[in-house]
Amino acid sequence: MPFMTIQQRQVYYEISGQGSQTLLLFNGLTMSTLAWGLMTPQLEQRFRVLRLDFQGQGQSEQTAADYYPLPQQADDAAALLAQLGIDSVYLVGLSYGGMVAQHFARRHPQRVQRLLLASTLAWSDAVNEQIAASWGNAEQAGGDNLRFDISLPWLFSSRFFTTASAMLPDLRRISALTSWQTIQRIIGGVLQHDARSWLHELAMPTHIIVGDEDRLTPPYQAKLLQQGIPGATLDILPGAGHAIHLEAPQAFCQQIFRFADR
Fold first, then answer.
1. What's the CA gap between 152 and 206, in Å, rounded?
2. Are the beta carbons of 161 and 248 closer than 8 angstroms?
3. What pLDDT sits at residue 34?
4. Which residues of the chain have pLDDT under 70?
């Protein structure tokens, strides 16, 4: 399995596909590289696709910390690129990964050819803090099962529950693989996020997408990103919730392809 030592930690990554351009995918909060499985077959036809597990995710090594800062996660990804000899990428960040991507684009702009931000936040507002607190209360009251149940309305559209609910048992099992302590460390980084004062520094071509039923990172957050990033474009996906990599993978891939061709 491919690991790279970064800051004395083992970081897990995967590369597949034969394209000349590298597409770097940044995971959502409780995702791992496995979570892109519905999209990678299509993406590999055009790109060399690079995925990694951030600290606190999947197979990457974890360290004890109060929280995992988003800038550090961004710097880990930049160090991985340097060790792999990859100069620049088309960067796609989903949810948590979209927040990390904002920091990556600010701290390592020379490495970003294009930036696509999906289902993500310009800043962690008071509503986001309350959502995080409700997940913590659910964990204390009923463990990972109750926390999973509480999170579902935030993650998926109404259509998902009528057409794809068969996925829920597997998603519940995957959710339980990450400890609440680790999730808290990742959320701690999210709660520090506020890019509004420096979004104007992001000079690379940028595209933003969000589902019109995204309740966790709602369209108003996508509009803040568009307003703050010079020249950014925005598409709102009809009938999609937050977890578009699961419920709208085809539409997500098409957005990636179309933005590459602009």
1. 29
2. no
3. 94
4. 1
pTM of the entire predicted model: 0.97
Locus of tokens 């940028």: 206
Please give the Cα distance from 82 to 223 (Å, whole number): 33
Q: Per-residue pLDDT tens for 200-238? A: 999 999 999 999 999 999 999 999 999 999 999 999 999
C-alpha dist (Å) from residue 40 to 19, 74, 78, 136, 187: 12, 22, 22, 32, 26
Q: Where would I find the H helices in 85-211?
A: 96-107, 126-155, 158-163, 168-175, 180-190
Phi, psi (degrees; rounded to nearest 5) at 260: -65, -30
Q: Which residue has the tokens 């690129």?
A: 81
Q: Look at residues 24, 27, 85 and name the one whose alpha carbon lies nearest to residue 54.
A: 27
Which is nearest to 242 in space by CA: 37, 45, 29, 67? 29
Q: What is the pLDDT of residue 191?
A: 97
Ramachandran angles phi, psi of 93, nearest 5°: -120, 130
Q: Which two tokens stand for residue 41?
A: 């077959």
pLDDT value of position 18: 86
Reading the block at residue 4, the tokens are 């790279």
The pairing of strands 233-237 and 3-6 is unpaired
The vertex-49 CA angle with 29 and 113, nearest 5°, equals 90
